[in-house]
């Protein structure tokens, strides 16, 4: 009776290229997600140099001028009256 049992491993087909690509892509995606979650949870202390820079006065080149809005030629003016039904 013991000789009737077959303990050989089952025949499993060799994975195709697309299956390997999917497996490694999912693995890399999981690693990326873990890195993103750890970046949110674990705070990174800021260096003292980064804190000193904002206190320095800005030069004239760095300051920005407020932008003026120029009406576009392609836009139609809004109608002031409502349509009659």
From TrEMBL:
Top-rank taxon, per record: Eukaryota
Region (Disordered): 49-85
A GO cellular-component term linked to this record: membrane
InterPro entries: UPF0239
Pfam families (alphabetical): UPF0239 (PF06783)
Compositional bias of kind Basic and acidic residues: 55-64
Membrane topology: Single-pass membrane protein
Protein location: Membrane
Biased composition (Basic residues): 75-85
Record's keyword terms, sorted: Membrane, Transmembrane, Transmembrane helix
Primary residence: membrane
Transmembrane domains' residue ranges: 24-44
Protein family membership: Belongs to the UPF0239 family.
Protein name: Protein MANBAL
